[in-house]
Amino acid sequence: MKLVVLGSPDSWYFKDLERAAAGRHQLVSATFSDLASAVTTGGITAHSADIDLVQADCVLVRTMPPGSLEQVVFRMDVLARIEAAGVPVINPPRAIETAVDKYLGSAKLAEAGLRVPRTLVCQSVEAAMAALEQLGGDVVVKPLFGAEGRGITRLNDEALALRAFKMLSQLGAVLYLQEFIEHEGCDLRLLVVGERVLGMRRSSGHDWRTNISRGAKAEPIKVTSELADLARRAASAVGGPLAGVDLLPGRDGQLYAIEVNAVPGWKALARALDLDIASLVLEFLEGIVGGRMSG
Question: Which positions ≥6 away from 228 have C-beta within 8 Å?
């Protein structure tokens, strides 16, 4: 299998996939910044530097770097054209677009029947202040696009909230507010790899955010049939067969679907479970490529 990995060749994930492949597959690293395409009467070509993505057996998206609106739209368009040419793209561009957009992702989760925190999204300071009151005066404000807890702020003071909303408004940001869910300082990260679901608990004793990058501790959990079903439904809602699903157990006894990551990491999970997840990912991709070739 010739697998093109869109991401840095120096990333831990590319090296982990190379290790797991053990020479059985040809892994090539490509970057979004080098992405280019030609359109002719006979079809399209898509390259990253000298790598022909249309000739790959599979393209695995391992990063989604920031860029201008034009750059991001072009990158997604090229991924869609590669997919239309018959090359499996994991995750599909539509799944990436949905998951990276917190508003659209939350809407898809709610439409799929999962319990989500009450969320209000608006574009003015006045509307945000009204939303703060409507959500009980204690909210989590998140950038519409972002990951690993970056830019997330909890606001429960009107004066501070007003200053924050004014600053964000001046930056042209969309104001995304979620009610703060009281919890015990932990959440669940479930990794969906096709039909397989793996999981860990992330706990933090000093921060209401439970990101590993912020010092949270990871421990393995038993993935019950209920948790596996929730994870698969969440991944399916955004259209991502390889996805990280964040679930938050609230003090009210309810389990909330917070978000789905369509470019999920597995470093902390592999350590917590003492499991070779990169091999599971490759096995999953092999199945997709094998099914395509036999079809």
Answer: 190, 197
